[in-house]
Amino acid sequence: MNILVCIKQVPDMESRFKVDEDGTWFDGADLAWRMNEYDEYAVEQAVQLKEETGGDLTVLCIGPERVKETMKKALAMGCDRGVHVVDNESFKKDPFAIASIIAEFAGPKNFDLIFTGMQSQDRGSAQVGVLVAEMLGLPCATTIVGFSFDNGVISVKRELEGGVKAKVTASVPALVTCQLGLNSPRYLTLPNILKAKKKEMLVIPVADLSKTQALEETTSLYFPEKKGTGLILEGDVADLADQLIKILKEKTAVLA
Amino acid sequence: MQFKLTDEQKMMQDMARDFAQKEILPTLKEDERDHRFRPELVKKMADLGFFGCAIPEEYGGNGCGFFESVLLAEQLAKVSGSWRVPLNMQNIGPSVTVNRFGTREQKERFIPAWVKADSFGFFAITEPNSGSDVAGMGTTATDRGDHWELNGQKMWISNAHVGDWGLVYAFTDKSKKYKGMTCFIVNLKDNEGIVTAPIETKLGLHCSPTGEIAFTKARIPKDSILGEVGQGFKICMWQLNNTRVSCAAGALGIGGGAIEAAINYANERTQFGKKIGSYQMVQAQIADIVAEHEAAKLLVYQAAWLKDQGMPNQHQTSIAKLFASEAAVHATSETMKIFGSYGFSTEFPAERFLRDAQSLRVVEGTSNIQKTIIAGIALGDVENR
Q1: Does the ipTM surpass 0.85?
Q2: Considering only Cβ atoms within 10 Å of each terminal Cβ, which end of chain A, N or C, has fewer?
Q3: Same domain, yes or no, for B208 and B180?
Q4: What is the mean pLDDT of chain A?
Q5: Domain containing A54 — which CATH number?
Q6: Which of B291, B296, B290 has its CA nearest to residue B260?
């Protein structure tokens, strides 16, 4: 099996975000960075598959120098090599441009299976995996919460809206996007953290792989306006109850 | 000078934090209430390589040193002071000491089992009538020709009643004073002459088992001696200087955990219409404990780093232990005040941090003993080793 897993480095979601000077993205200074949560499920599943079937597992990440730290985590989890596509302005690229870069790299490598997270925690478009599959002409199963592989066929459980699940099968090569609930990412062991240091890290300038232009542009990023401090009802109890019932009838679907 | 952690060290720190949050915190309240020690958790730590620091790879070492062990201890203690203790019981105590003073055969036999937590370690120094005065201990080991006979009692021993193999210090020749002390590698299980019992009247560290050991004509094989006969006091001091830095890291963790809780609370709690963190008196409390915590961190990291470099460090280790444990007690005490009535409630973590922090100015040499060591070296009376 020749496996690729694509990961993204995102800010710790507990961070206090500030909009950057251009007003189109958040300010990256003073943020703590970590692996996108959904990509952790992708890496874990890819490593489990590799352990089961043998083969070779590559982890790819696009971004500035600092993403290497996150890639090392994937290597410590069990990926064999890293591919760092160096791009200091990856945050400006739309999902189409990012997917094009991945497809340009993955195309000639003939991966049997590509794992991605179902979306990133910062941009949250949930498009990159699907677009990569489309560009490479691969079957694609999204938001998977169960995975097995047997004899060239993947069987996955997908999570749909309203708690409904679907089972999907596809022959490899294929691409899956991973959702919370798929697995519990392993803890890194101290020896594996140190071994990761010695694993191969291939560095590719983004210009070598970027052959397309972005199709969309983020024109502004802003915090929603703070709403007022709720409505305080006044009066005696009977009057309060009447007022409340009126509001519930007029403004909500609680009372018809 | 280099004050930055490597990517690998940061990963270890993150992993330990994650482990503590997911494996310790969810049941901590009940475990504390029931004084529950979870052997399976020690095993999990072993599987992740927590106990292989400062140990050669051939005996199960993980390629890391004291510095990394200190990072782990800090993160574990941030969640629970109790769960920092296994690092000393499995790794920095018996394993590192046997690695330094043991024969090849002893190293092969004992160290991998401690590192993998197949054997629960311990070290027995303190007695009912001797604490700080180590050479005042009463336990004796008598040569009976084909075996050693141990007699005496040890008290306040971590892992006493759950321990397997560990180190016991005893006098082989009391007339030689401290030069008559010897270190033995002893199995507490399956020995008719050894009885262990838990001590459950501790103020804190409720998830860390502490107990007493009674030796009554206990037969110990002849090949149980670590190092040489009469070398026990030296081994004991060498060992304490190592386990001491892990206690200092535990203090860093407990203090850090309390400070985090205090800051969150000061940012959330409002009184007189404003966050309590906006009042200068609360700000002063936070400024003091944060400044002390950051200073303690540099001291503890420095002491661990010196050990990894093989440089003299007793002075710096005692300074780190003294400063970090006193800072932790101060931080947890201020945290309780900031929490007000909730600080006094067992429903909130502030009181537990305070109780656990108190242990750290007692274990591995009281704060007074640390001062004796620091002053002795500072005055030139004792060499820094």
Answers
A1: yes
A2: C
A3: yes
A4: 94
A5: 3.40.50.620
A6: B290
